[in-house]
């Protein structure tokens, strides 16, 4: 079983898309094990985007990510890192396939609605910025034996 880390970016919250986006993971049978509504601090933002420091889009990205509250989520399922990124779609909404979250609801690269970790190492690193181990809840989904 694998876990990954997701952030619904500030424009997803402002546009009222929290339910729409979480629904897409729930309907796949992906289990939510951690959920927080928060306004990111500069420190959290710098840690999250540490690998992108120095890139041309860094400042704009960090400012945007702190422009309003976000929803931080940890989810669990087999092969969930790849599955979540498949549901989210390509970074550039122009290249995101129809039917993906970005392909249906996003317009620009910076404001592409959602962040999702891209590897086991990054998932662990990123979720630990926002969640302590006791924030992550173990339980059985009703549908777990049927997916
Ligand atoms: P994410 O990390 O947010 O799930 O998205 P990703 O892997 O598809 O994209 P990544 O390359 O990790 O970039 C992180 C975020 O930076 C913004 N970005 N802007 N203007 C640009 O060229 C550019 N490139 C990346 C996006 O908001 C992207 O989600
Ligand atoms: Mg990334």
UniProtKB/TrEMBL annotation:
The keyword Ion transport does not apply. InterPro entries: NDK-like_dom, NDK-like_dom_sf, Nucleoside_diP_kinase, Nucleoside_diP_kinase_AS. Its EC number is 2.7.4.6. SUPFAM superfamilies: Nucleoside diphosphate kinase, NDK (SSF54919). The active site is at 115 (pros-phosphohistidine intermediate). ATP binds at residues 9, 57, 85, 91, 102, 112. Keywords: ATP-binding, Cytoplasm, Kinase, Magnesium, Metal-binding, Nucleotide metabolism, Nucleotide-binding, Phosphoprotein, Transferase. Transmembrane segments: none annotated. One of its GO terms (cellular component) is cytoplasm. It catalyses: a ribonucleoside 5'-diphosphate + ATP = a ribonucleoside 5'-triphosphate + ADP; a 2'-deoxyribonucleoside 5'-diphosphate + ATP = a 2'-deoxyribonucleoside 5'-triphosphate + ADP. Belongs to the NDK family. Major role in the synthesis of nucleoside triphosphates other than ATP. The ATP gamma phosphate is transferred to the NDP beta phosphate via a ping-pong mechanism, using a phosphorylated active-site intermediate. This is Nucleoside diphosphate kinase. It comes from Fervidobacterium pennivorans.
């Amino acid at each position: 079983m694998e876990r990954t880390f997701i952030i619904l970016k500030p424009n997803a919250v402002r546009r009222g898309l929290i339910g729409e986006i979480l629904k897409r993971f729930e309907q796949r049978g992906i289990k939510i094990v951690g959920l927080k509504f928060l306004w990111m601090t500069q420190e959290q933002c710098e840690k999250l985007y540490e690998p992108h420091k120095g890139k041309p889009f860094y400042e704009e990205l960090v400012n945007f990510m702190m422009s309003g509250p976000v929803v931080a989520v940890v989810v669990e399922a087999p092969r969930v890192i790849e599955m979540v990124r498949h549901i989210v779609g390509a970074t550039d909404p122009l290249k995101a396939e129809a039917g993906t979250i970005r392909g249906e609801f996003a317009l620009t690269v910076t404001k592409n609605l959602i962040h999702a970790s891209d590897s086991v190492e990054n998932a662990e690193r990123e979720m630990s910025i926002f969640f302590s181990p006791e924030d992550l809840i173990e339980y059985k989904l009703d549908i777990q034996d049927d997916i």
